[in-house]
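Response to reviewer comment R2.3. The reviewers asked that we include at least one raw input/output pair. We reproduce the pair for FAD synthase here without editing.
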Amino acid sequence: MNVCGIKTRSLQRLFVITGHTLGKRAMASTNGSLPNVASNDAQSSSSSKQSPLLKRSYYRAMSGQSTAGIIVIGDEILKGQTLDTNSNFICKKFFTLGVKVQKISVICDEVNTIAEEVALFSEKYTHVITSGGIGPTHDDMTFEGVAKAFGLKTEFNPDLVQRITDWFNTTDMNSPEMKMAKIPETSQLRFGIDPKTNKPSVYPLVSVRNVYMFPGIPNLLEKAFLMLGDIFQNPDVKFHTDTLYIERDEASVASIISAVANKYKDDDVVIGSYPNLTNSYYKVKITIESTNPNKVQEAHKEMMEKMPEGSVVVYDLDPLQSAVQAVYSFMENTNQDDHFIQSVQAAIRTIETALEKYALENICIGFNGGKDCTALLHLFYAVVKKKYPQFDGKLQALYIRSRCRFPEVEKFVQLSRDRYNIEMLHYDGRIKDCMEMMATDRPNIKAVIMGTRATDPYSAHLKEFSMTDPDWPQVMRINPMLHWHYKHVWQFIRQLSLPYCSLYDRGYTSLGSMDNTHPNPLLQYVDKRGILTYKPAYMLESGEHERDGRNT
Ligand SMILES: Cc1cc2nc3c(=O)[nH]c(=O)nc-3n(C[C@H](O)[C@H](O)[C@H](O)COP(=O)(O)OP(=O)(O)OC[C@H]3O[C@@H](n4cnc5c(N)ncnc54)[C@H](O)[C@@H]3O)c2cc1C
Ligand SMILES: NC(=O)C1=CN([C@@H]2O[C@H](COP(=O)(O)OP(=O)(O)OC[C@H]3O[C@@H](n4cnc5c(N)ncnc54)[C@H](O)[C@@H]3O)[C@@H](O)[C@H]2O)C=CC1
Ligand SMILES: [Co+2]
Ligand SMILES: [K+]
Ligand SMILES: [Mg+2]
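Raw output as returned:
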């Protein structure tokens, strides 16, 4: 077999398929490139030593597939000082563009290392993305490294020089800024359309051959990719994915997953299995992916049928996205006898009334990470989104931190704040004292929406709208969940796949201070290893015993 011939032909095909217009120069011999680095030259002696593994990616590329490799450049990432988020961003984008990312490499700020990796990646993948190292400092050497990979020189690009002159107000060719204009010869400058100005971007993306050099600053990289990402679009391929969530240990369903994966592997269906030890809803996520949507459907159906009864759970990965639709679907249910439906409808109406009486800036939600206000926050969010679809400001929440709080609660409050885009008003101390402080520095807050239920201590007399007691700072307490039962709260949370504080999965059914709150003894059991364990809070049969784990 003529290895050399195959390589040459497939390489040419590769560049034709992916629309690369390689000039004579780019295809010409790459004198001066690193030793042991394969070049694009058909006559190059290295091609006869080509590993058979390398050939496979050319074949894939030939069959309409477009591949990519990402090189993340930066010492700070290898030292753990910066978490690489850029490769994740690009992987997600490439997936939607029909491009298969085959490798991510993280390397240091070193010219030869960059050159070697770029040369290798450029051979193997349709597109190569580099991230970082294109700034003005001594440790930014991506342009140099990429040039070296191809045996090219770096040179001042007149267009870039002009732009940097204008931007940084300098004509000094030795200035740090000007370094950013010294790029590999034969580079292309690509200008996207800036969505903000509707004009071509001021700063271009530099590319040479199939290598695209992105900045490391995540904002800049993302902006450049959003403007220019379309150049990578593979029109021949669209990936279709289906996801199944399984409520069983991975090992117990592994043989089923493998059987289906095996059956469909020749149909270009790729199946992945991803266990999760902390999710409240599922233990294994199974992804089924193919370029053929019918095959995805077929494999999905087969997987469903083979799984043990009741093991496949309905799980919404992004309940905020569907919040309005999911919450308002309760309003369409006309079952008068279903106490749960009635309770949810009443809560929605109370919040709607609250939004008629109070402007958003006069209202906040009392949020302490508990289950009641977790359900309530979602309801509040959905009703606000429904009433003000254009609103993209922050909802206000009041969080009064108890003396001795669970770190799990603290973490959940923070996650909720970010998830729901909340402005969190924090206070430390006794509730009444904190309310007084709030009255002073937030006089705009006239009403607090609360997750209080009539069965909570001293709450039987409350109405949907009750002013605070006379000896308290005066605000309107709004209680949309007054007539919810314990089990309704869980039914709502679980039905909508809402994230909740992890303590509830460990047997806590009501959360107070860390020094006086314990898991609920009614949920206790001894597991098969003989260890005392607790069932999750939503398994508690009767709400009467909700506070059995609390000393106060
Ligand atoms: C805004 C507000 C006004 C109050 N007004 C009065 C009053 O007029 N008279 C009176 O006797 N008592 C009042 N209280 C105290 C209240 O009655 C309860 O004692 C207190 O909420 C603790 O209730 P719980 O242990 O049942 O906790 P939960 O069941 O967790 O509390 C019920 C709801 O209150 C809100 N909430 C509770 N604790 C906090 C917190 N630390 N930070 C933010 N929100 C929280 C949440 O929305 C929660 O869902 C008020 C409390 C709050 C937060
Ligand atoms: N305006 C523009 O569009 C451009 C501006 N520049 C200039 O260049 C300089 C930055 O060049 P860079 O190549 O970005 O320098 P760089 O490689 O030094 O990275 C800059 C920052 O981004 C972070 N970063 C790098 N890689 C990351 C990753 N994979 N994930 C998450 N964070 C990461 C780094 O920790 C560092 O703080 C700046 O001075 C900027 O103004 C450069 C190119 C384009
Ligand atoms: Co409560
Ligand atoms: K730098
Ligand atoms: Mg760097």
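Residues 361 and 444 are 7 Å apart (CA to CA). Residues 504-552 form one domain. Further pairs are available on request from the corresponding author.
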